[in-house]
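Reviewer 2 asked us to include a model.

Predict the structure of this chain.
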Amino acid sequence: MHLAPEVNFSVKRSRWHARLIVGASLLGLLVFAAFARDQMLLDVRTGVMALAMLIASTTALIGWKHSVQGNLRWDGQHWYWSGFSGNPVCCLRMVMDFQSALLVTVRAEAQASIFLWLEAPPSDAIWKALRRAIVSSQSASNPNSNGKDKKIGPGGQGDLA
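Predicted model (structure tokens):
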């Protein structure tokens, strides 16, 4: 089996992730508005719910604003993340696959795992190469598969070490 060629992927703040946060916040605002409208009196519960919505949305947006950025690199055999000191070999695991966006965890020995939102850039070739590298690394890390790779559907979960 041939491994995927080298790939360098620049990880930036994901617009897809930001849209997800804003969409969930707007949905929460609609639920809050429906809740508040059905209340005879606006009481402490209404205030607590409004405060909880504001805190949750603000925390999510601040988390997105401070999300890690760097360079994810596949050298044909191993993953490397520029955010780890010493540039150690990493283990990459896909958490969610939305075709144009991926949520992955990257872990290196003696380092905490981090979550990365990977989003398809305008250049489709880079994105396809990254996805091939992820699938290739999954196949290479599972030598007992006998060519029978597990099928993982959209939004599914699987190890891509």
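Residues 145-156 have pLDDT under 50 and may be disordered. Residues 15-65 form one domain. We have added this to the supplementary material.
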